[in-house]
């Protein structure tokens, strides 16, 4: 079977997704996110040679929310190395993104860096020895560097909305602080956390920013080495097992790619050795992942033979 | 970087593993398994063209225990199709292999088919409308067919040992029965379950039996199509996210392959598009997975560039 | 305020309870119990001087179910003394009668002797060194001795009904067996447990049987000393804190007496120093306690000033 | 058996407790409490006729900590009536004082008003429509009124110590706020909570303050009616089932009185119809209750025949 043509596939998916009636529901627990237009959909694919294939609303900026956790983990591993793993585990949680139950049973150590508690602990490591403003600046510059675009920004209205309503995250952070897992003042850590979740970028920018994960740690467009090959593989492994909270198994089963979703409706997915993919549609499914985003990725992987669990292309080699 | 030579790599790994002092501990909760010689180690790799590369004690038969769950799931999917997913979920459990807590919170539906409760529910589906002896015969013949060898057998002493001491599995099965998740009489289901866990085979046979999972559902040696490509990918995805109980994230992080371990010390690992690998060493680590088996797979994947999360080979293409 | 007249109060309560429309629902999880006539209600009070005051269907035999746990605990304390507390705790569980969650977290030790797991562990202690038939005979004779009536019997149809459907109890027993908390074969222990739960007696007999708990361990009618004063007080304390599963706090709050309920619709309540009370009505509330039985006890306590948490009588002395 | 003489019994207990070597350990999680002299012990008993019998360090002021929860519940019931029970349950928790697990499973509704989460929810009700300073003033004046002494005060150093380290309580409050169970700003609620826990008084004052609970809601010394008889009984019932966290069953079993302990080492115990008892010794046992305080109460109840579960006095009447 010859590989399908990526441009055709992306165009068909974008057209279908724009037209579908089932669009999911916008997140309401962060009020500011509730205002986004449900009709939007975007997809951007960057291949190894730098070719960009895109469809839909790829000029729209959206709130990347938890997709930012992939990048703060990358930063923290660069700053603290394997000390990160003294503060946070590497196992799927089997629980919702904001569950506090396991924190009590496991003495304040979050299961992995992609649930809220884990990402807050990672933010605490990035903050160490800095003012919140400095740490946040570092995270933002990292995103601008990875995407190669200065227009990536922090949406302060979204951050403020979450600061007003983020009681559950405040509970998680204080709970970890009580166990000594958080070093810095809780409000400092949460300030940085709420703001890095409020980073706004386009699908095109997000696909570029994730590109190093598809290519053994090196951004093929710029030639910059971001992390070692081993670290890139390991971040991908964590995205596969833990990237979608209590829907991680389902995403692996249906899509078959490492991925990380956010409640803003964005998903970053990695096709190791081939491509970095970003999709965005603000309506969410019951697990809090982008409804159309997940469907689009499932179709893309099936059509392109990109599942890491068995590809018709490698089979026919 | 050119690919390492598989024969050399396998020989080096086998030699190192035979020589190491750290060998883990044999499982003691099934008394019969406690008698196995800790010095043994075996590795067998079958590539797409049928080439077999092996090292260590590849003529030794061992109890495959939970590795059998991959094959009973395959059988049950063939018999019942997606009805399997009415009885068992597809998410990592975040808990030990024999935890009963989630069963209570989730009304008797096990998280996935690779924890004990899930595999017992799968066995119940295979049993439907059969006598235990018939169902067990079907499972055994399936293993003999997949491995192409009639010498695969059921070790009745091991099965009897587990029947005498398997109180926890009896609790799980009765608990599910109370929720109506098990149709057949509990003792029938457990009889089949204990016996299929007691299947004994060699590493060579196990690698052959798993070969269809590496090649889109088709055994390349025989040309037999066992399952559809999509189903093969999905079973691999489940092995990746759920194959090692509460050590699944760690295995994905370190080894980077779909795999399934058993307390007999065997592990089956799949390199999609490339190879099926079986390793065996009876000493276990704290999570109940083969200590040297896991290390051997980690070395094999690193040396051969076989991680599904990023390969130097695809990168250099 | 002068004490109300007990005969008048009991007669009024019996008349009101017979007439009420809200009668609860019969237990359905033990099919045989589902056949009982919902219209029935009985109340029997035995005071210190042996005076019996009764109303309603006091000649009807009913299945005492979990009320039997008070008596098996009493027997086991006589046989094994404080060794009982190595097998079972003394704290309220905060969970349903058949929860298995805490058993996993607490290594197979049930929270208290009045949840199912705890009562099964107590039955195992009574069984030690006996055949099931002997142990069961001992329990039955103890009930006949305490009530002073040979007509107390074991309803074999109810026991058989529970043996056919008691999967949850089978799960609990096997789970404890896996932790080494149960000594005897699981089926022996459950056989005795299901049969002692199926003891059938009248309200009059039950009130007599519990009389020793109201009078420092001594049955005032016969003068027989059953347990020491300290032990009687302690059994009453356990009934108060643990006698109604996850409705124990509510019963203490509303009724204010030590009590133990059963899904057959019976409740035994103790007024220390004054009286032993049995009520029975087969319809249950959402917590599995007799709906009208609880209301009757609340009215009786309020009218007679019998709450252990403050009595108008002692106040006016 | 004639009743023992209360003066002799109290004197003997005070002497024994002062002399014992096993004194428990001071709480360290509130640093300020760690400085208290372990050698101290006090006991004060106030009978119905107002007779005060005391022994040990009855002039020492100590931090009543969680004993204050009895009084804030009393206040909140006066202010909000049974609406209190929309925010907090009435069942024992079976968990530690600061567990957050049940809050997640039960949507932010604490099990009872005597665990930390429950007391915080009660404080939120008292705060409604007030400034923190006003609410705190009301609580303090209530304690001064009940004890009849203006010297009862709030130890600001203790409150400040807890404000600096109370991360777990901050987690609980934010978690409930996320579920909408808390109306006021979290820091306001916690400010009042930390300060009412820091109320300092003597054993004599505490015994007086609790006196209304022993006498159907009326303080016999002053004749003031504080609550209705029914409410007094119900508060006592809650103290019996929930007053000592996961040691409530044990306290009922050994002491046999409604009681409430605090980590400052104080315990208030109620003998309905007879007396109000306060004991204090700063060393705690493993459950966080005063080690010598509990032993003193056990001896007092046994010697005086005061258990609510059966009294030799009522038996001999």
From TrEMBL, chains A, B, C, D:
SUPFAM superfamilies: beta-lactamase/transpeptidase-like. One of its GO terms (molecular function) is glutaminase activity. Keywords: Acetylation, Hydrolase. Its EC number is 3.5.1.2. Substrate binds at residues 66, 116, 162, 169, 193, 245, 263. It is an enzyme of class 3 (hydrolase). GO terms for biological process: glutamate biosynthetic process; L-glutamine catabolic process. It catalyses: L-glutamine + H2O = L-glutamate + NH4(+). Homotetramer. Belongs to the glutaminase family. HAMAP family: Glutaminase. This is Glutaminase. It comes from Jiella flava.
